Structure formats: structure tokens, C-alpha cells
Amino acid sequence: MSHRMERVNQLIREELSRIMQREIRDPRLEFLSINAVETAADLGFAKVFVSHLVTSENKKEILQTLTGAAGYFRGELGKVLTLRHVPELAFYWDDSIERGARLNRLIEEANRDSVNPSGE
Fold first, then answer.
1. DSSP characters for 34-85?
2. Which pLDDT band, with edges at 50, 70 and 90, does 118 fall under?
3. Considering only Cβ atoms within 10 Å of each terminal Cβ, which end of the chain, N or C, has fewer?
4. ∠ at Cα 93 (91, 97), nearest 5°?
5. Mapping DSSP to helix (H, G, I), strand (E, B) and coil, where does residue 91 land?
6. Domain for residue 58, yes or no?
7. Taking the CA atoms of the chain, what radius of gyration do you get in angstroms?
8. Which CATH number is 37's domain given?
9. Phi, psi at 45, each rounded to 5°
10. What pLDDT, in 10s, does the model give residues 47-100?
11. Range of the domain at 63
């Protein structure tokens, strides 16, 4: 990935985070984290990966809310980014934090078992 694309991804991530923190008052989007943005090379489309810091139980509802507000987010990005075309936004759930926590638990369990193989 080129340096320019990395910078565009970072700018979109930062601005979307700012918009959600300061301008959105929807309780479903509180504690939402934008983990990554992957923009297509032609800047026509951007995948936005999100997770919730508290729960992942309502992920379908959260993604529907974000998808419904994608036009608003795109308009707000157009006001602050100096791009000829602001990409269409698509939101995806990022479960990497959950997978990482699960792997950490498994590693801890394996370490405990290797230190105390009899289970005492």
C-alpha cells in the first residue's frame, strides 16, 4: 500500500472518530471504536472496520445504524478532507479485539496447565 493511501485511510479514520464523538448523539454508537479503514486505490469505496468497547451483542443494529448514516458521514468528510471524491463508506464489524482476548485466555490456560500439569 502506498504512503498516500495509508495517509488517506488514517485521515478518514480520524475524522470519522471525531464526527462520532462530537456530533452523533445516538446511544447505540457510544463507545464505538473505528479500528481501521481500507480505501480502494481509486478512492471510490472505503471499508470501515468498527467494534464496540462494551458489547458486541447489538452488532447488527449498530452496523445498520452506521449504514443508514453513511451519507451523512460522507458529507461531513467532504467538508474537511481535501479529496476530489470522498469514497462511499461501508461498515464492517471488526472482531479482532475479541479474537485477541480469546487467544490470550487460551494461552494463559495453556501456561497454567504446563506449570501445574496435575491440575492441582
1. EEEEEE-TTSSEEEEEEEESS-STTHHHHHHHHHHTHHHHHHHHHHH---SS
2. low
3. C
4. 140
5. strand
6. yes
7. 18
8. 3.30.300.20
9. -150, 140
10. 999 988 776 678 888 899 999 999 999 999 999 988 888 999 999 998 877 777
11. 3-94
Virtual CA dihedral for 39, 33, 89, 98, nearest 10 degrees? 80
C-alpha cell at 66: 452506521
Give domain status of residue 8, yes or no: yes
Q: Are 25 and 65 in contact (CB under 8 A)?
A: no
Q: Which of 7-21, 27-41, 52-66 has the lowest mean pLDDT?
A: 52-66
Spatial strand order of the sheet with 32-39 comes to 32-39, 45-52, 88-93
Q: How many domains would you assign to the chain?
A: 1
Q: Provide the residue count of the chain.
A: 120
β-pairing, 88-93 with 45-52? parallel
Cell numbers found for residue 76: 461531513
